[in-house]
Write a structure and sequence with these properties.
The complex is a heterodimer of chains A (280) and B (261).
Chain A lengths: L2 H7 L6 E5 L9 H11 L4 E5 L8 H12 L17 H11 L9 E3 H12 L7 E7 L2 E6 L4 E4 L2 E2 L4 E4 H6 L5 H14 L5 H7 L11 H19 L17 H8 L7 H12 L6
Parallel strand pairs in A: 1-2, 1-4, 3-5, 4-8
Antiparallel strand pairs in A: 5-6, 7-8
Helix pairs in contact in A: 2-9, 3-4, 9-10
Chain B lengths: L8 H19 L1 E7 L3 H12 L4 E4 L18 E5 L3 H7 L4 E4 L2 E5 H15 L2 E3 L2 E8 L5 E8 H5 L2 H4 L4 E10 L6 H8 L16 H7 L2 E4 L2 E3 L2 H7 L8 H21 L1
Parallel strand pairs in B: 1-2, 1-9, 2-6, 9-11
Antiparallel strand pairs in B: 3-5, 4-5, 7-8, 8-9, 10-11
Helix pairs in contact in B: 2-4, 2-10, 8-10
The chains are: A alpha/beta (280), B alpha/beta (261).
Chain lengths: 280, 261
């Protein structure tokens, strides 16, 4: 048997992209994200389904709540380590899963969320399918570069996870935002009012509910699919939708206001669009 | 002719003592004990009483209301963000809109109305009494509070030697502000571990205070600023809307729990 026929037989081809809606928010126009991906991956079926947290069985509810409660990042200066959650944290997670608590204010470890979704999706998450889970939770991952956790817009994996509040909170705002915030807080000893700061820096970063949110979702969904196919999703070009933005300004440049792809990635995606084969 | 009816000093004393004794007898065992009579504690107690729950507020000062009497920087105006003004409507507190979503009202008006509303709802109040310890039952469930007169705590133990008394309840609400005294007592006993300030995303702290108002340990509900301490939120400024909503959430959780039982 020739070597080429062996590799051809073991090729894995992307057949489906599945987008999981966020738990409760509806500010992302999912249909637009689907249209965007369809325009690139023409032969791939694209489906939108509810969050993996929907329809949990009673027997699963406590287990998932426990996992979530123990996935909270409590010390951003240390690698994540699961600790036994407080009773109240469990109660909150149960209420959150039952739709009785608004989500917000808690940062979860991104890799723990990925593990949880792998478990919940089970066999519905094969390599022939890119699953993108959108969530209303904030998530972070620990960086060994600067030894601290960073909030993330997206955690790429199998599945990839997009944090909707992360679009706003994860990429850093302008430096002067933090300097003014620090000054306000050191003079009062209290947390600065985010509304006041938002007014002062209006237009310099993405806000919840803005039309740009869906544009960001499109670009990050594309990064998730490219990651699935190549494990190499990022581009160093700031004007390419595959740019890995760390600042709000970069996120706006790379995703909002009809940006496209760089020449190299245009070519790559034409090829992947025709023949979406996993290359790793 | 004198203005007032005739009464003796002993009658006045007997009236005070008999009512106090009756109240203590009635509330030695109750549905809910709220520790702390600030905005979240009073709001929780009011909503509980309106739902037919027998509730006692234990307040260490001789006045109720905590920091609700006054706004930031010792100024009388307090601000409430939407939807907190809906509670002001319920309490009959008049307010003005400062800008869209932000309302203001005099602290003394809002605070006195809240106190009056709690009392009218049937809340029993024990002033000048301080929380000392928790009553624990099976599996370390909180089932009451040990209290003592506040002045006793101000004197050296060697010369006071005044033992506290214990009150039993189905639930206890910790509404003691940033001190989170009941939670801290459980932490002293190694029954709970609070994460400390800053464990949660700072800009979302006000919402998170409301969302985390509820059980933090079997038998113990936490409301108001005590939620910040318990769940590791940063310290916040005078955000009375969230205190009122937090109290309401605490009451809702308690009512749901009591109904289940």
């Amino acid at each position: 048997m020739s070597r080429s026929s062996t590799s051809r037989r073991s090729e894995t081809r992307l057949r489906e992209i599945e987008i999981r809606s966020p738990e409760c928010s509806n500010e992302i126009e999912t249909a637009e994200v689907v249209d965007f991906l369809e325009s690139i991956f023409k032969g791939v079926r694209i489906a939108v389904k509810p969050t993996p947290f929907s329809k949990l069985r009673d027997s699963q509810l406590e287990r998932v709540a426990l996992y979530l409660a123990s996935s909270r990042v409590k010390d951003i200066s240390r690698p994540f380590a699961a600790v036994e959650p407080m009773y109240g944290e469990m109660e909150y997670e149960i209420r959150g899963l039952e739709g009785e608590a608004r989500l917000g204010g808690i940062v979860y470890d991104g890799r723990r969320l990925e593990e949880l979704f792998i478990d919940l999706l089970g066999t519905r998450n094969p390599l022939e399918k890119t699953t993108i889970v959108m969530t209303d939770r904030l998530m972070s991952t620990y960086s060994s570069d600067d030894l601290r956790h960073h909030l993330r817009t997206v955690v790429l994996g199998f599945p990839s996870i997009m944090s909707i509040p992360g679009f706003v909170e994860a990429p850093a705002k302008p430096r002067s935002y933090y300097l003014i915030k620090q000054r306000l807080e050191s003079s009062t000893g209290l947390a600065a009012d985010p509304e006041v700061l938002k007014r002062h820096f209006k237009g310099m970063f993405l806000e919840r509910g803005a039309p740009g949110m869906t544009e960001v979702a499109k670009g990050l969904a594309l990064q998730a699919v490219v990651h699935h196919l190549t494990l190499n999703p990022f581009c160093p070009n700031r004007k390419c939708r595959l740019f890995n933005a760390h600042w709000q300004e970069e996120l706006m440049t790379s995703q909002v206001g009809s940006p496209g792809l760089c020449a190299n990635h245009s070519k790559l995606l034409r090829q992947l669009g025709r023949d979406p084969v996993l290359s790793w | 002719m004198p203005i007032f009816e005739k009464s003796s000093e002993s009658s006045v004393t007997r009236a005070i003592i008999s009512q106090f004794a009756k109240d203590m007898d009635e509330y030695a065992e109750t549905d809910v004990i709220v520790i702390g009579g600030g905005p979240s504690g009073l709001m929780a107690a009011r909503d509980l009483a309106l739902n037919g729950v027998k509730v006692l507020v234990v307040e260490r000062n001789n006045y109720l209301g905590g920091g609700f009497w006054i706004g930031g920087f010792l100024m009388n105006t307090i601000t409430v963000r939407a939807p907190g003004q809906k509670i002001l409507d319920e309490l009959g507190v008049k307010y003005k809109m400062y800008e869209k979503g932000l309302y203001m009202t005099p602290g003394p008006l809002a605070c006195s109305k809240l106190i009056a509303s709690a009392c009218e709802a049937g809340v029993s109040i024990l002033n000048m009494a301080s929380f000392d310890d928790v009553v624990l039952r099976e599996k370390n469930r909180v089932a009451g509070a040990v209290i003592n007169w506040t002045p006793v705590g101000a004197l050296p133990r060697q010369i006071t030697c005044v033992d506290p008394v214990a009150l039993e309840s189905k639930l206890v609400i910790d509404a003691t502000g940033h001190d989170a005294m009941v939670v801290k007592k459980l932490e002293e006993r190694g029954l709970i571990k609070t994460p400390g300030f800053g464990a949660m995303w700072i800009e979302k702290s006000e919402d998170a205070v409301v969302e985390h108002s509820g059980f933090c340990h079997p038998g113990l509900i936490v409301t108001g600023m005590a939620v910040s301490t318990t769940f590791g939120l940063p310290r916040m400024g005078p955000t009375f809307g969230s205190m009122l909503l937090s109290g309401r959430r605490g009451a809702d959780v308690a009512i749901k729990h009591l109904k289940k039982k």
